[in-house]
Amino acid sequence: MTIRLNHTIVPAADNEAAARYLADILGLEYAGLHPVAKHFAPLPINEELTLDFMTVPDAAGHHLAFDVDAATFDAAVAYLRAHELPHGDGPGSYTNGKVDEHSPLGGRGVYFPDPSGNLYELIAPA
User: CATH number of the domain at 7-55, out of 2.30.30, 3.40.50, 3.90.1150, 3.30.720?
Assistant: First the structure.
């Protein structure tokens, strides 16, 4: 049996702002609120996974890590730097402005928070 994650709910202080934030950094298309379940701001990550951002009071942040290709990684880091957004080389140092060039998961890594307290990690081949 094959098991794949179809979607997950990501808590946010503002669902649409959080979806747009990640979409802008990753170069993805955000198309607006779910046509039926208007409390979700879905962001398709790829053909198989959607993040459904949902506004909740006192949103507790999650950690989400993505394997990305080198071009996506470089574009995301360039976006973070150009917009002076916090990012860093580790989960405890996600605001130091550095990139991990020797990630223990292989290749390069960068961490960045969103305004709701979610912490994203991008992992790319060296």
Answer: 3.30.720
- Alpha-carbon span 10 to 103, nearest angstrom: 25
- CA 15 – CA 118 distance, rounded (Å): 12
At 126 the pLDDT is 79
Residue ranges of E strands in 1-90: 7-12, 40-44, 50-55, 63-67
What does the pLDDT look like over 49-76, one tens digit per residue? Answer: 999 999 998 878 899 999 999 999 999 9
Query: Using one digit for the tens of pLDDT, what is the confidence trace for 20-36?
Result: 999 999 999 999 999 99
Residues in the chain: 126
Fold of 63-124: 2,3-Dihydroxybiphenyl 1,2-Dioxygenase; domain 1 (3.10.180)
- Strand ranges in 20-126 using DSSP code E only, listed in sequence order: 40-44, 50-55, 63-67, 108-113, 119-124
